[in-house]
Amino acid sequence: MIQQVIYLFISGQEIIFILFIVVMVFGADRIPEIARGLGQGMKALRNATNDIKHEITKSAEKQGIDSSVTKDIEDEINKVKDDIGDFTGSVKRKL
Questions:
Q1: Residue 8: which region, alpha, beta or left (left: phi > 0; alpha: psi -120 to 50)?
Q2: Sign of CA dihedral 32, 36, 39, 45
Q3: How far apart are CA 7 and CA 16, in angstroms?
Q4: Separation in Å, CA 15 to CA 11, 37, 50, 83
Q5: Rounded CA separation 73/58 (Å)
Q6: Distance of alpha carbon 92 from alpha carbon 95, whole angstroms
Q7: CB 3 within 8 A of CB 92
C-alpha cells in the first residue's frame, strides 16, 4: 500500500515559500540555531511523555491493575486500521 504524507494540506510550493520567508526574517545564520532548539524541545517533550507513561504503568502494576487489557485493545485498533487501509486501497483524500 502506498501512502502519501500530507502536511496540513500544504503543497511543495507553499513549503518552499514559507522557508524563503523564514530565511528572509531570521537570516541563514540563525536557522541552524532555531532548528537545534526545536529538536531539543521535541526531545524533551518525548522524554517527558515517556516518563509519564512509565510512571502510570508502574503505578498501575503496583495497584494490581492488569495493563494487558490496553495492549489487547491497541492490537485490535491496529488490526482495524490495517483492514481499513486494505479496504480503501489507493483511494486518496482530496480537498
A1: left
A2: negative
A3: 13
A4: 6, 20, 31, 33
A5: 19
A6: 10
A7: no
Q: What cell does 19 get?
A: 522557508
Give yes or no for a contact between 6 and 14, defined as CB atoms under 8 angstroms apart.
Answer: no
pLDDT tens by residue, 70-91: 777 888 888 888 888 776 665 5
Distance from chain centroid for Cα 65? 28
Overall pTM surpassing 0.90 (yes/no): no
DSSP 7: S
> What are the structural domain ranges in the chain?
10-55
Question: What's the helix, strand, coil split of the chain in %, to 5?
Answer: 75, 0, 25
